[in-house]
Design brief:
alpha/beta; 211 residues; six-stranded parallel beta sheet; Rossmann fold; globular; binds NADP nicotinamide-adenine-dinucleotide phosphate; membrane
């Protein structure tokens, strides 16, 4: 029996194919949780899922992925329901996919501003609503939503106007959802956010060499 076993639990992880999201995927899979990754690159998803299935196999099921661009928010729920109708068994949602900004507002393209808010804030709100509805309907006992925000939600750094404000919005989305989902027909959904600082060497250092 694993310590902190998540055997029989099921997590959808946006941005779970790389970086922080992939680390979370591995951590949950190592405890026996089934993982579905959502990200754009099918190739990267495939590599990450193969790694999970090889290193952290789960009985009778497989980790898998949905390659999807979360900027297309209007169709995401329909797509999940179509490809993975068993999404109803999911008791964990991790909203990790995010887009950064490295330019002063005056120099940031309008479309980039829109995309940052869609990916960092609107997609998590839409997915949280979708999964929370099914978590409540299915009366999951251990239902969790985890949002990956940023330390910049609480700090001022020029060149991050849209990014930091989207991450601040994500924190408020988290705290408000946690109140709304606290008790619903005696069901509880835990909603939390993590606010990481800059992860030095994450991409280029040793921890990046996952395969
Ligand atoms: N790294 C840091 O220092 C740091 C610090 C604080 C907060 N954060 C936050 O932590 C989260 C993860 O950051 P990271 O550095 O680990 O990112 P990363 O290595 O660039 O990975 C981003 C993940 O999101 C996916 N993704 C990106 N755009 C997407 C889209 N439009 N639709 C679907 N999936 C998409 C990527 O896959 P595809 O490219 O294949 O779509 C990938 O799986 C982000 O929300 C970021 O804001 C990071």
């Amino acid at each position: 029996m694993l310590f902190n076993s998540l055997l029989g639990q099921y997590a959808f992880i946006t941005g779970g194919s790389k970086g922080i999201g992939f680390q979370i995927s591995q951590e949950l899979a190592s405890r026996g949780c089934r993982i579905t990754i959502i990200a754009r690159s099918a190739l990267q998803c495939q590599r990450s899922v193969e790694y999970l299935n090889k290193k952290y196999p789960i009985p009778k099921q497989k980790h898998n992925f949905l390659n999807y661009d979360l900027l297309k928010t209007s169709e995401v729920c329909m797509r999940i329901a179509k490809v993975y109708p068993e999404y109803k068994n999911a008791n964990i949602l991790v909203n990790c996919a995010g887009m950064t900004q490295k330019s002063l507002l005056l120099n940031t393209r309008e479309q980039d501003i829109v995309n940052i808010y869609i990916l960092n804030l609107i997609a998590p709100a839409i997915l949280s609503r979708f999964f929370a509805r099914s978590m409540i309907r299915q009366k999951h006992k251990n239902a969790n939503i985890l949002n990956i925000s940023s330390m910049l939600a609480e700090r001022y750094l020029p060149g991050t106007t849209a990014y930091s404000s989207s991450k601040m919005g994500l924190v408020r989305l988290t705290t408000t959802m946690s109140k709304e989902f606290m008790r619903h027909d005696n069901q509880l959904i835990r909603v939390n956010a993590i606010l990481p600082g800059l992860i030095n060497g994450y991409r280029y250092g040793k921890r990046c060499q996952l395969y």
